[in-house]
Request: fold
Amino acid sequence: MTAGSVHIVGAGLAGLAAAVALAAEGCRVRLYEASAHAGGRCRSYFDDELGCRIDNGNHLLLAGNRRALDYLERIGARDTLEGPEDAVFAFIDAQTGQRWSVRPNRGTVPWWIFWNARRVPHTRAAEYFGALALRWAGPTAMVTEVLDRRRRLFRELWEPLAIAALNTAVECASARLFWRILAETLGRGGAACRPLVPREGLSETFVDPALAVLHARGAEIRFGARLRALNFGPDHVSGLVFEADAIEIGRDDLVILAVPAAVAARLVPSLTVPDAFSPIVNAHFRCAAPPGSPLFVGVVDGVAQWIFRKHGVLSVTVSAADRVIDLPADALREMLWRDVALAYRLPAFPVPPARIVKERRATFLASPEQLRRRPGPTTSWQSLLLAGDYTDTGLPATIEGAIGSGFAAARQALACAHAKPQRAAGGGDIVTETTTRTDKERQRILS
Ligand SMILES: Cc1cc2nc3c(=O)[nH]c(=O)nc-3n(C[C@H](O)[C@H](O)[C@H](O)COP(=O)(O)OP(=O)(O)OC[C@H]3O[C@@H](n4cnc5c(N)ncnc54)[C@H](O)[C@@H]3O)c2cc1C
Reply:
């Protein structure tokens, strides 16, 4: 536990994860959020035009996302996820209408690549081992410099996975980062690749249960609190300046800045952060999928890339969406419905009502150059820590990365608190041990 309060700015998943971890350690947590709601880029809301709740964007977790699942355990929301018993990724080719499924076996030995019915049609087992070249890729290598894009396996598996995971076109996406994703998912066997999606919505899974836990632990949460500036002392933050008021920060207090990269760069002098971003377009069609249809389908050579079946809604994701982001909503609705109708065997006309959501700065661009701009959780000021998907988590901008960054900042906050001199009863300073058994135990629990 920290002696003073921990002030967390930003209630996206990074801020919520830090808050949940620190509140569990008995810390006094104060959470400030600029908007009227928590969740940031990962939340649900009621759409008046469609007459139902939708997610701001489709978010897919995999069973191997251990930080995200740990977070859900902590907030009691693990059972709000659903997904197939085994890893199954259904695909359709939008040009030919051909369908196939990729079905990795559960264990870590990938025997699925030797089985026609489980791998991409017309590919050979040996081709899959070609992906191992990513492991030895240099820090500046792009995915297409390492994998042969003329191969069917590239077009029908590696490319859709890379674009979905990195939200970056394969020509400029980091080969090393793609390797990290493959190693954490396919490399750990089908059990780690089992897809999981929220049964109700993103807020019901990731946000509302976290707020309930924080309230129950006495955390103070302020919405509509936009941080305008930080006041700095020589080695610590001395104040938080909000639009409406200012708060003094004591020497025992800590601040975790869990805002998006561009906001952090405005607030913290000389902070280097990623400064190139990549868009995502989502389309939510008010339409039920035929019974028994797959939870989601990957589309190759279409405009849509992934289509998700939800309650009374079919939702489309287009990642690295530079090509379509400026198209008018009506044109996107028509183009994307063509792929949805094909994938879910629905009539091409009439096109159902749809909400098009464009996120121009959905995530940072996962290029080698941008990865070098990611800061760690600590700053030049002892009492100021950073969290957010843009920090150097070793992962792309994902739920797993954002939550991992929140946990890392919480670990660092506890370490700072335990390293700080504490006032002895007689007035002198005592330095507390940083490696007591309790601290080690805490590190284990939070890591
Ligand atoms: C459309 C879309 C689809 C995605 N799909 C996936 C997916 O399938 N799988 C996956 O894992 N990830 C996905 N992601 C990425 C994932 O949503 C993000 O990585 C994650 O939500 C980022 O969390 P964060 O807390 O780092 O940042 P944010 O969610 O941006 O949170 C930052 C918070 O800070 C607040 N804030 C900003 N400025 C201030 C200020 N001055 N004062 C106070 N508060 C402030 C914001 O309002 C916000 O609530 C997707 C993202 C988008 C946009």
Observations:
- The longest strand covers residues 354-364.
- The pocket of flavin-adenine dinucleotide is lined by residues 9-15, 32-35, 40-42, 56-60, 226-227, 258-260, 263, 280, 282, 359, 362-363, 388-389, 397-400, 402 (CB under 6 Å).
